[in-house]
Amino acid sequence: MNSLVYQINDILHAFHQLSPKVNDEIHTDGGMIKNKYLMQYLSNITQKNVKIANISELSALGSAMNAMHHFDGMQYSKTYTPRINKNTAKDYCNEWTTWIKKLA
Fold this sequence. Notes:
It holds the Pfam family FGGY_C. Residues 2-69 form the Carbohydrate kinase FGGY C-terminal domain. With 104 residues, the chain is α+β, with helices and mostly antiparallel strands. It has helices at 2-18, 36-46, 58-67, 86-103; strands at residues 25-28, 49-53, 76-80.
């Protein structure tokens, strides 16, 4: 499960290289938002706030919103903030990268 967090972190770094103005928050939906450990770990490793959508399946909501002419805005049920420092997060990410290189 932790590997998903590191993969998301890798993608965020790639996005940041393409566009340095990438949002500093992560907005989430889907079944995994119910996993509090995963959401907190995502916040810790990325060092970003992770906002949990009130509606777990936003794909269906997105389709409905496309049919609407206006929408009042997204609401969130919870926000996770980093609980480890940047250096610890960086150490974890370096360990992840080392293992990926060993397995490649």
